[in-house]
Request: fold
Amino acid sequence: MPKIIPVPDELSQPFWDAVNERRLIVQNCIGCDRLQYPPGVDCRVCESATGVEWKEVEGKGHIAAYIVIEDGRLNRRMPDQPYNLALVTLDEDPTVNFYSNLPGTPPYEVPVGAAVEVTFEEVAPGQLIHEWKVVE
Amino acid sequence: MTSSNDFQWRRDRDGLGVWEHRGNVAVVGYGHSPVDRRWDGVDLDSSLGAYTIMACEKAMEQAGVTIDQVDGIVCCDSHIAGGSGGTASQWAPRPYFDPPYDSEYGLTLINAQWLINTMGFKNVKFAPTGVPTIGEMVGMASQAVGDGVCSTCLVIYPTGNMEGRYRRGGENADDYARGARQWTVPWGNHGGNDFINIFPHRQYLMKYGGEHEDLVHFVRNQHKNGMLTPWGYNATHNIQPISVEDYIGSRPILNPLRIWDCDRPVNASAAYVFTTAERAQDMKSQPVYVLNHSQHNFAFRTTQPDLDEVEMWTDRQAARMYEGAGLGPADVDIFNPYDGYSIMTQFFLEGFQWHGVKRGEALSFYAGDITVKGPHPFSSSGGNLGNGRTRTAMYTDSIEQLRGTAGDRQVTVRAETALCAFSTPSSGGWLMLGKYPS
Ligand SMILES: [Zn+2]
Reply:
């Protein structure tokens, strides 16, 4: 089954536009120079008035931890069960993390600590989402 | 009437010092309805409304407070479990009943106005709307009584449950992810404290050692304490404590989270009477005193809180509570943290350093003697795992332990102070109670 489809809003439109071009961008705080994802109106750390700007990142990360969803509540994902849900930290700033189903990695066989790189997956015509694959 | 928006009651910052009303506010009564698994949609004597009225009457009866003396009602609309969950869980489009059950109120929602109309309160001057959960409501009521906004305040927490699996349907049946859900749902996180805490829990096991299954000692002890709680779901339905084998063989939900790590949604209501310490002297029940309250709502730094973040949040909760009460970890006799998912309770135990438990030591603490008759009667209430998802056992047990009326659950160690909460690492609130006002 395809994954659930994100609906861009005013704040997230640039992000999803970039994902649809197979690029990963996150916010960078002009005040404290930290990366931020998911995007916010302001920096969640320093709440600086100078604002945030979009910045493309390399798309390299590591697996910090994972679980296996066996009995989740999302209708559209039920046929996928059991499936991995991993927590991926971004190498450029490990306090920034992402979720991933780790396409290509069988459930329960997740190499915690392994390097991953961003990949993109179509969830609806013209709509990609960012995913992460273990680097062989 | 006062709304919650124009009354500054929260103690939700670090470094606020000793609470200005410490010991001047008391809890003088509590009442519980029966705890059913679900409302059947037919019997109006066991509806959420009927059960809430029953809980209020019991609480007032215990305190010796009449309807005319009540001048404050703090009631949240409901935290219904239901098939769809959240705001989508409602009785409509099914036809309503005769008054007072001619709308959602009394069936899936309860608020102060419905109770005023239905029970005939005449002198209520404080009945805020938009009231948060029980974890924060007890603080709101404590501050209102301390500030003199009202003097005799009912705190009411209904938890409804109708047919259907927990939080299936509604936005969880949607093919699209909107708002904050666009960052979680596409990958399978439906949102909730199961997901918030399971990753930090996994990191906890990796950092400090131990297996997920080590939680069985805690879960079993909650079940045992639940069987000693006469009003709770487990005791009234003879739900015997699970065995280690039952636990290990039970259905995974978010593996390693199992079904027995999750509390059981119920249809029930509870009420408490808060008043001034001065008025409490003339009431018929033994008062327990509020020594501090605090709230927290920490913003996530990124997609998913990690262990560092959860430990920092729980450290800050503990610091706020100890500072406001003028007490330290060694002063706390009764400790009733939230356990709606078993995987988060260790963060509170270690953050508050109850009985000297430090970071990484909870699982070995659980494996020791944590029974109510032993030296470390941890979570003597049985919490939500032992009583059903009422989110109130932690408060009622704390009151009973300090009064010395906990029956078979009465601890054998000193019981003069109690910390209790409906709080997750990221949001909620804590309450410190004392047998004495200072
Ligand atoms: Zn910043």
